[in-house]
Amino acid sequence: MLGKPKDPEQAKGMLRQLRGEEHLVITGVAVVDAGRCLTSHTATRVVMRHYSDDEVASYISSGDAMDKAGAYGIQHPLFHPASHVEGCYLNVVGLPLCTLVQMLEVVGLNRRPRPLWALPSQCQDCSQRGTLT
Asked: What are the Cα distances from residue 69, in Å, to 2, 31, 41, 95?
């Protein structure tokens, strides 16, 4: 289990450990409503690319690695650490939106589309895509 790194050296170790490997990102979600508690989780398979030590050093020096579990932000515009994501992309970003929306519907909260908000292109195959935008 990889949490947020405590320092740049630990971030470097995490990124080296993940390089070229695959791992699961698992996020738990809970919705509490008037004494009722729903819980769920989402698991996403992430395959990391073979990034260089120079890329790791540059990414860590940006400061972005320090507040991310596993020391990486999949959405980073320059680093792009993953070669492949299987499952919910937004889970890896930090919140499995589709899981949350489905749980909110169970407790009676209807989603309201926001015309200026759109799912990222990585969510192209999401079963909820047409209903969330």
From this structure: 6, 22, 17, 13
Say which CATH class 8-132 falls into: alpha beta
Percent of the chain exceeding pLDDT 90 equals 65
For the whole prediction, is pTM greater than 0.90? no
The neighbouring-strand residues paired with 102 are none
Q: Which residues pair with 37 in a beta bridge?
A: 32
Per the prediction, the chain carries an average pLDDT of: 88
Position 24, amino acid: L
- H or E stretch including 48? strand 36-48
Type of residue numbered 44: T
> Which residue is listed with tokens 């209807």?
110
Write b or e for each residue in 97-130: b if 16 or more Cβ atoms lie within 10 A of its Cβ, otherwise e: bbbbebbeeeeeeeeeeeeeeebeebbeebebee
